[in-house]
Amino acid sequence: VIYNLYKPKNYTSFSVVRQVKKITSEKVGHSGTLDPFADGVLVIGVGKSTKKLSEIIEYDKRYKGVIKLGEKTDTKDLTGSIIKKEDIPEVKDIDLNTLAKSFIGKHMQKPPMYSARKINGVRLYKLARQNISVERNPKEIEIKDLHCSLYKKDMLSIEVECSSGTYIRVLAEEICAKIGTVGHLIELTRTKVGSFILDDSLTVEKFEEKWKS
């Protein structure tokens, strides 16, 4: 069976899988890693249904997030160290609408070093923690919908619908570059994976109740 679970902040996707495995005593997998600092929809397969995950992982996804302007971090999110600071130009919502439209469509995106992507069998974040940087091949991604608005003087809120494999942390940096500054993600929520939506997501506790009932 396929389940729509809610991954809370400060948990790895694998830790949620491990909890479900403990509850069910069956084979368990998920359909796409969510960064530990992020929360939202994590689609889980239990038992034979794990075979369906390779199809679900290719579904389009929707996210909402908050970008902190003026500060770049090594991880591209709030968990990293600040490596650069820049002034923030005056930002207006009308300019942001035009900017957002410029991202719609297909383009190439290079995965960040701090990611779960594997190169030669090693996850990139493990190399990054050793201060090792390797060449990563860019992958074609598609931004299908993007909305940006001023959240605070030094923050933007974004909503994005995108193809599988899109790194929102990288997109956030690209948005900042077009504004004329640097930035990093401080909040990220996955609100949709295909037809699986956040409003229907079960916490691990609710999943356990459902499994045992």
Automatic annotation (TrEMBL):
Family matches, as InterPro entries: PsdUridine_synth_cat_dom_sf, PsdUridine_synth_N, tRNA_psdUridine_synth_TruB
Stretches assigned to the Pseudouridine synthase II N-terminal domain: 22-168
Entry keyword Lipid biosynthesis: no
GO biological process, one term: mRNA pseudouridine synthesis
GO function term, MF aspect, one: RNA binding
Leader peptide range in chain numbering: none
HAMAP family: TruB_bact
Protein name (record): tRNA pseudouridine(55) synthase
Organism: marine metagenome
Origin organism lineage: unclassified sequences, metagenomes, ecological metagenomes
